[in-house]
Automatic annotation (TrEMBL):
Positions where 4-aspartylphosphate occurs in the chain: D55
Molecular function per GO: DNA binding
Domain HTH luxR-type positions: 148-213
Keyword Transcription recorded: yes
GO BP annotations listed: phosphorelay signal transduction system; regulation of DNA-templated transcription
InterPro entries: CheY-like_superfamily, NreC/VraR/RcsB-like_REC, Sig_transdc_resp-reg_C-effctor, Sig_transdc_resp-reg_receiver, Tscrpt_reg_LuxR_C, WalR-like
PANTHER family: TRANSCRIPTIONAL REGULATORY PROTEIN NARL-RELATED, TWO-COMPONENT RESPONSE REGULATOR
SUPFAM superfamilies reported in the protein's UniProt record: C-terminal effector domain of the bipartite response regulators, CheY-like
The organism of origin for this protein: Kitasatospora cineracea
Keywords, alphabetical: DNA-binding, Phosphoprotein, Transcription, Transcription regulation
Designated name of the protein: LuxR family two component transcriptional regulator
Record-annotated Response regulatory domain positions: 5-120
UniProt keyword annotation of Isomerase present: no
Length: 222
């Protein structure tokens, strides 16, 4: 199979170069270009990347605006937002705009490569050491959200178990291992969860899990 095409969008040349070197070491990944926000849509049209790593904060055109333009393309790439902050105020907006995940810029090289592969496969980046920190910071404070709790009320008991572990940042295989299920069964549960919650991806579902208090409740009960 041809390598997965990756576009890196960041206003800092050194950051683009560093990320490109890391991603480019994987034989199944190919960095096809790098640019700042203003050129992202044009390059995405020309180069047809499968995955875009997109900085949230850029001076010429901010990451949220770029994300919306990329998601409006006829064949939109999977987009993961890059941030230097583990509690970025743009997270909620990015989720609603269709971001498939969040990565801190100091993500370990092996985790970055793995994240790109997950995105290319149609998944969302939700690692315990990166996305979980971001999501936890985003929903921190106050008690459970009643609207989120209402959404999760549509789920079966097993689906609630899966959603709670998804909110902790576990992969399908890790959830399967924890609940003694097959990975195919977990995948089916997650598809049903997304449909019932009206969530576009795992990241949005994880936020709902945190807001509903599912993750906190499970952790407090351990």
């Amino acid at each position: 199979m041809p390598p997965t095409r990756v576009l890196i969008v960041d206003d800092e040349v050194l950051v683009r170069s560093g990320l490109g070197l890391i991603v480019g070491t994987a034989p199944d990944l190919e960095v096809v270009g790098g640019c700042s926000g203003g050129r992202a849509e044009q390059l995405a049209r020309e180069l047809a990347p499968r995955v875009v790593l997109l900085d949230v904060r850029m001076p010429d055109l901010d990451g949220i605006s770029v994300l919306r333009r990329l998601r409006a393309l006829p064949d939109p790439p999977a987009v993961a937002m890059l941030t230097t902050f583990d509690t970025d105020e743009h997270i909620g907006t990015a989720l609603r705009a269709g971001a498939a995940g969040f990565l801190l810029k100091d993500t370990a090289p092996e985790q970055l490569v793995h994240a790109v592969r997950v995105l290319a496969a149609g998944g969302s980046v939700l690692s315990p050491t990166v996305a979980r920190t971001v999501i936890s910071g985003y929903v921190e404070g106050g008690g459970p959200d009643t609207a989120a709790a209402g959404l999760t009320g549509r789920l079966t008991g097993r689906e609630l178990d899966v959603l709670a572990l998804l909110g902790e940042g576990l992969s399908n295989a890790e959830i399967a291992d924890r609940l003694f299920l097959g990975t195919g069964t977990v995948k089916d549960h997650i598809s049903a969860i997304l449909a019932k919650l009206g969530a576009a991806n795992r990241v949005q579902a994880a936020v709902i899990a945190h807001r509903a208090g599912l993750v906190r409740d499970r952790q407090d009960g351990e």
